Amino acid sequence: MTARADGSVPGRPSPHIRLTSHPVTAVHAVNWGAATAAERGPVIATTSNRLHRNAIGTHSGSYSVYRALAVAAGALSREHRADLTNTAPTDVVGPYAQWGDPQAIVSLDPWGAAVADVFATELADGQDIRPTIAVTKAHVLLPEIIEAVQKGRLRPDGRVLVDSGAAVVTKAAIEPVWHLPGVAARFGCSESDLRRVLFEETGGMYPELVTRGDLEVFLPPIGGQTVYIFGDPHKLADPAVELTARVHDECNGSDVFGSDICTCRPYLTHAIEECIAGAQRGGVGLVAYSRKEGRALGEVTKFLVYNARKRQVGGDTADQYFARTECVAGVQDMRFQELMPDVLHWLGITKIHRLVSMSNMKYDAITGSGIEVGERVNLPDELIPADARVEIDAKTAAGYFTPGPIPDADQLRSTVGRDLR
Ligand SMILES: [Zn+2]
């Protein structure tokens, strides 16, 4: 490869560090919450042409670091442009009224799935605009759903549920795109405080947070969301159509590996069963899955807490459930459901008829964002693993929804989980 005059080699990292903390006039300012894509303008967070950038951070959430690794290792040209041929969404979502409200959606780009369409001119003009949302179709095959078919609770209809027991879904992957003024408003802090703390607590990872007040959009290096839709996605926005929905936070141990200390997978698969049944009744089902492992504390903290719970004097009791998390993490929970309803507004949802969640924090965030919630569907007792009784008793005593009795202090002391064996 031939070096350029400045010593850089095309496709390889530049030998010079290019600081991005000095303002340059972006090709497009992002007019967050504008009613149309043309007025809003594209979010440009790619690195191929730094003069085009109008956002802080880059694409793919935490995977942006792997992209950097690929460039550093010489496996990926930093000038690579995505070929978006045939990548268009299988189902067009929106636009909905909420997309034009700068307060309704602050943590994702509502136009993120449509960039190849709505910003076709800018793309043809050489601007490197990447989708932050992708929508596709799949069949999902879960042993719990096959069992529901075998036991007669669900019946394949060839539409929502095929004969193999696989559910037909539309699914969307969503990267985080934060509008910093809106995120600050959600958390009741000033934008400057939010920017400064994000800068400091990531070890100074994004200097533009504090030097570039003109850049209001930040693509944070965190996990995103995936939504699974059962039935016609367009029905989600129709409040007259029965919507069964669960908002689920990632729990790798239970969701994927079947760990029995919590209720995550049983509740997830129960929600999927409810979503399928609802879609078969003519409604629509939705599971919105957020990458917020271990209450967004991460799996290392989560496993430390498990040990602390199970080794404490008196064993793993429900009355100490939250205290042990707080001892290790400093807080009980970092999921902060304030941003969660954004995905529901992206889908145009105004009413959830059946919310498959017992969490008061999720319920409060959803209803507080203006979405009406009808019935709340609890996790049936028979689906709670024995060792997870500690968690569910602690949570219902702390305000989680339950149609049954709320455990008192004596019961919380007597709900004891397995020890470390
Ligand atoms: Zn779990």
UniProtKB/TrEMBL annotation:
Its EC number is 3.5.4.25. The keyword GTP-binding applies. One of its GO terms (molecular function) is GTP cyclohydrolase II activity. Keywords: GTP-binding, Hydrolase, Nucleotide-binding. InterPro entries: GTP_CH_N, GTP_cyclohydro_II, RibA, RibA-like_sf. This is GTP cyclohydrolase II. CDD domains: GTP_cyclohydro2. Residues 16-201 form the GTP cyclohydrolase N-terminal domain. It comes from the Bacteria. Residues 230-377 form the GTP cyclohydrolase II domain.
